[in-house]
Input
Amino acid sequence: MRLLITGGAGFIGTNFAYHVLEHHPEDSVIVFDKLTYAGNLENLKQLEQNPRFAFVKGDICDVEIVNDIVKKVDAVVHFAAESHVDRSIDDPMSFVRTNVLGTQTLLDACRKNAYIRFHHVSTDEVFGSLGRHGMFRENTAYDPRSPYSASKASSDHLVRAAFHTYKLPITISNCSNNYGPYCFPEKFIPLAITNILEGKKIPIYGDGMNIRDWLYVEDHCYGIYAALVHGRMGETYCFGGRAERANIELAEIILFEMGARIDMLQFVKDRPGHDARYAIDFRKAEDELGWHPAVPFLHGIRRTIEWYKNNREWWTRIKNGSYTQYYESQYGLGGANEPV
Ligand code: NAD
Ligand code: TYD
Output
């Protein structure tokens, strides 16, 4: 299969490109990426000499280039997005542009070019915020609460509409928070690990009791490929890590694993509209795709810490560049939030 991986220079897309080329020798990959602040060509440097790999720089909102590139593939796996909730609070429009208009641009191109297979990578955040009990499933009503999750919800609806209206062969997956190698250090886990490696504190929003479910990125890649190959057309699959942790608990695990002191936590002002809890019931993916998360949470965290220890130059360059500028403009602290 010839695959187009949009957003393949970002966190999950990079991992997926490596996954496909390693595990599926019959497949080839074109990564299509705008290289925003979150896209990093350095991620893909080990693939440069691979004859089954190509990179094309471009914007998923650009109708002409998108039309041209989908002609070269059998399937699109769509990761490209603005992906960080905090940035969406500050600048919702860029999220609407890429996540909504960009997704529709890709759908139109797939429909007009031989009905190319389309898999849409989405998030559990479209379902809103859970209380203490319950889990999200494929039929949970949408209730997005941040500009990020609202833009992803819109894109999910457009993808589903393309199936119902035009019979475009689509599948969608909604997953919980990913962690692992190549995650941009503005997300909580890499921010925590790299801050500790720099001798800085871990910023904890609010009281730290918000709960996320954590999915190791490699497990997610297996799930996406399974949905692409074995998923039923028009269907949605939820992927979770069976690893719910309160943020404070997660930060303490990272501190313990890295041998850092407990006073390396810094409580900061809360995120506006901070969702309380996410959790995923992934029985449908288990039943239909034979998928379940295989990497236990502690193993995943240890592997992730090792990766950031071994790739210091990668994240140091990022933190010295756009990341720091962004946080300085927001908080004036160059990487940490304003203490309460
Ligand atoms: P990321 O921010 O690390 O990477 C996004 C990539 O998309 C970057 O390489 C960026 O350059 C590219 N991009 C952005 N706008 C573009 C545009 N207009 N045209 C072309 N490329 C563009 O994101 P990620 O964490 O790898 O997330 C990938 C996908 O998975 C997203 O759709 C996200 O909503 C979804 N998701 C992520 C998580 C998570 O925990 N990271 C969880 C659930 C779902
Ligand atoms: P994040 O990695 O931004 O993912 P998302 O908002 O998509 O779930 O945040 C994960 C959790 O960690 C979320 O509850 C917000 C919290 N958080 C902090 O407490 N401190 C931080 O510095 C960041 C970035 C996040």
